[in-house]
Amino acid sequence: MKTISQVKREYSQIQKAIKFLIDKCLDKKGNLKISNQKTVMHSLRMGFDLLKRGYGKNIVIGAILHDIEEDAGVSMKEIEKEFGKKVAKIVEAVSLNPKIKNRKERDLDLYRKIAKAGREAMIVSVADHLDNADYYKYIKK
C-alpha cells in the first residue's frame, strides 16, 4: 500500500503533466494554439478515467500527454526530460508516425509500436479508443 507522501508525489506529477499539456496547447487567454479542438479535454478525460480506475501515474500521465507530440509538436526528448523514459515510451508508442502517409500503413505501424511497447501503452491506446468511441459513428468510410 502506498503512503500518503507517495500519493501526494504522484498527484503532483500528474498535475505537472496537466499544466504541461495546457501550456503547450492553450495560450494565456485559454484559446487553442493548436488545430485539434479536442486535444485538451480528450486527454484530460482519458487521464482522469484511468486514474479513477486505479492505474499508476506513468499510465495516467501517458494518457494525458498521448496526443501532445502529434497535435502540439512537443518532442519525445522534451517529454522524456520532463516526465522520464517510461512516460516517453508510452507516448511515443501511441503516437502516429507523420512520415507514413498511407493511413492503413500508419495505423499498422502504430499497432506494432504499441504491441512492442507493452501493457502500459496498450492500456493508453484502449482508453483512447474508448474515449473516441462516441465519434466513430460520424465516420463515413
Index terms:
141 residues, Hypothetical protein af1432, single chain, mainly alpha
How would you describe this structure to a colleague?
With 141 residues, the chain is an all-alpha fold. The protein has one domain (4-136): Hypothetical protein af1432 (Orthogonal Bundle), CATH 1.10.3210. 67% of the residues lie in helices and 0% in strands. It is built from eight helices and no strands. Helix 3 (57-64) crosses helix 6 and helix 5 (76-83) packs antiparallel against helix 6. The longest helix has 22 residues, at 4-25. The chain is globular and about 50 Å long. The chain starts with a helix and ends in a 9-residue tail after the last helix. The model has no long low-confidence stretch (mean pLDDT 93).
CATH architecture: Orthogonal Bundle
Large-scale geometry: globular
Radius of gyration: 15 Å
Task: Tell me the β content.
Answer: under 5%
| Poorly predicted parts | none
Note the run of SSEs as H and E.
HHHHHHHH
Looking at CATH, the homologous superfamily is Hypothetical protein af1432
Task: Just give the CATH class.
Answer: Mainly Alpha
